[in-house]
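Table S2 (text version). Query chain:
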Amino acid sequence: MPYGASGAEKLDVFRPRGASRGLLMYIHGGYWRSLDKKRFSFVAPALVQAGLTVAIPNYALCPAVQVEDIVMQMVQACAWLYRNGANFGAPAGKLYVCGHSAGGHLAAMMLACLWPKYSPDLPKQVVAAALSISGLYDLTEIVKVPSVNGDVRLTERSALKVSPAFMPPATGAPFHTAVGENENEGFHVQNRLIAEKWGKVRRADIPCPGANHFTVLDQLCDPDSGLFKAVLKMMSV
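Corresponding structure-token output:
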């Protein structure tokens, strides 16, 4: 389904067989510069089986756009889902966001969004809660990594503008985090930083034993894992 006018502004919707118990938007990673929603359909089946509607959006990629543009595309996708979810059976007022890596950054940014300023028809709290898996919250660190920033093209100033660690959550919507036990230390540092900065809204940090930056998504697809169960608990399912 299109959530905007450009070719990148489309999302896939996966519906449960019975009544939907909530709507989860999953945002993929790839350092804002790679990958596509079709690579991440695998996260949907177990969640759908649990009664959730899952939406997986695409977004334009750097260097064709800036990170700030991608943030606004995800704002647009959330607004579209909030307004239109009932058209494909999702319950009103039960929009949640989950993202991994760069998608985790984008999920956090959705909780910092001032929705009525974006569009006056929207309430202050569009997203009921969010889960960021191996997220990035201080993007000034990306400026120091030429292999990534060659495409992402952040400056100190533009990185601060899109770093959730340096802006307040817009509401009291709960924020959940997770990071794989065997992740690069940098992701653990980022996780500790957002815990310090967003302590008032962070509800839980979910352990992901034995997982690295990529295998942590296997746990998101496993109904017996703590991460999967945390998603259901976050959504009151």
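Notes on Table S2: The CA atoms of residues 143 and 155 lie 6 Å apart. The longest strand covers residues 202-208.
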